[in-house]
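step 4 of 6: structure.
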Amino acid sequence: MNRVLSNIVGACVEAWQEVRIHKTRVMLSLIGVAVAVCAITTVVGLGAVAQQATIEQSERQSGRPASLQVYASKFDGSAPAPEIMADVWQTALERYDITYASRVTTTSQRVQFADGAASVATTGVDVPYGTMHRVTMSEGEWFTAADAERLAPAVLVNSIFYDRLGRPDLATHPTTTLLGDQDTTAVITGVFPAQGWEQEPAMYLLADSLAALAAPVNAAPTGLDGGANYFGPPTYELWVPPELADPIIAALQRDVSAALGDGATADVYRTDYASWTGGEDPYLSLKLLVGGVAGLVLLLGALGLVNIALVTLKQRIREIGIRRSFGATAGRVFFAVMMESVVATVVAGIVGVIAAVLIVKNPFVEDFISQGQVTDFPAFPVEAAIIGLVSATVVGALAGLVPALVAVRVKVIDAIRY
Amino acid sequence: MTRTVQLIDAPPLTILSGVNLRVAIGDRVSIVGRSGSGKTTLLNLLGLLDNPTTGELLFDGRPVRSFSGAERDRVRGRDVGFIFQQFNLLQGRTALENVMTPLLYAEGRQFWQRSRIASEMLDRVGLGHRLQALPDRLSGGEQQRVAIARSLVRGPRLILADEPTGALDLETGEAVMDLIDDVARASGAALVTITHDPAIAARATRHLRLDHGALQADHFSADPARTALALTPGRTP
């Protein structure tokens, strides 16, 4: 035990002496490794941000895992009566204690702007929708329960809509006129950023506000010249824990079908991105691509290290011979040369990882990679740091292996005379 | 024992033939001979760095061939101290680090207290004030004294000196040999010195000459009876 301990400590001391004495060589060889580790860690770290951006983008479109949609229809294709469906919906939410649920109604609403009236894509939702679809606000806030009590409905507009209004200060409670059989004045309480592809104004209203607004239109559609020119039945969305998704789907399908009675059917299905690939990691190909590039970078760094280690080993053969003459066993020489490489690359790895953290967590880099699509910036991924350090150690061991084998094969007598 | 080497496109070259030598604790042996006579080969054999082609080499009464590679290295580190003509100090390491090097392969007290032991050893060879000096900042004599301290720091029982004064001027060489003799005498170690210098050889109590690979008593042997006893003809299987 004593011998093992002193051997390990002794080898580390030798390795550190080598690293200290051959600073320039070590620095030169390690720059490559540090850059490679920094690259692999940065790529993995930025990959996590990019992945989060893609995930959040998907979640804005189709909900977070697990998002469910309930679709009910009569056999003749028409929608069940709204009041019946509302009862069924409310009962189901209470029975299964589902907090995040929203009706979603899409329509087109005529709005009066200073330069004339225009149709605006309008979505009627419940308060939880904002969380369920990660809606971010550039100004103001998402709906709250208190907004349902307003006499003048609250409306959230996109930045195009807001620009067209002249970007009034929200603190002044700006209003907009929603045209219909009876014009409605709505208060703008928030602004959300338009997506890159969006060219037209859009807005959110609470589903009940929109229903109240559109009621006369439903009774007597007025077409494009009137208020809301299309107002179909709402869809029903839920956000539940992924592990409970399957039983909730089965239960809701059963309960809603039973509640609607004969002549109607209910279909419940997942809409989130995680359900599209049947449980497989939807980002596997991206990860493999990123990993492959990072691996190549590291391989190049390792080759540089092996190259320099082999060249310099020739200069050290005499030293190895001297050490052998003073009792260094072949195993000890092997271990020391290996350790020298490992100690050096671990130090380089730590430097590389620190540099990677500074790069990845730099606000400019985060903004560039996320392209404004990320609200929950992931912490610097621990796995990236671990991958970086483990890679450095493995590269150090592999790069040290060849010189260590060469060192062991040195004949002591020849080495001393070298 | 004999030692031959295989040459490419040439018959095997015999470097040592019929050598029979016994070195005991406290012996002072000098070996002289022309260049290429096999002196260094003999020293390498004694230092367990090489194996005889035929015959048997015993260390502490045990056949060296029965040692494993690691055991041979450990015995060499513990019981044999080399002093080289060119000093062979590790460049870039201080005098203290050079002397600590053999202690890195020791265990127990010698390993854990290597810094103190090495400092004491350097002090003993008169370099207590140059602990942190690098080899290229030391004179030739100082470098050889560091090398001596390094070879003796583990308290070897056999000191092998290969032309220890070959790179030094006459006066410094004398001083270095005084030091080697003193330290070897104090530790009771056997000292085998290879040299071209008759004055250095004369310091030994047993004087041997290697001539064309054969070991024989030198003409100025101080103790002919003992030398003759040591040079019984070698066995060749």
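step 5 of 6: annotate
 - The first helix of chain A runs from residue 2 to 21.
 - Residues 38 and 355 of chain A are 6 Å apart (CA to CA).
step 6 of 6: archive
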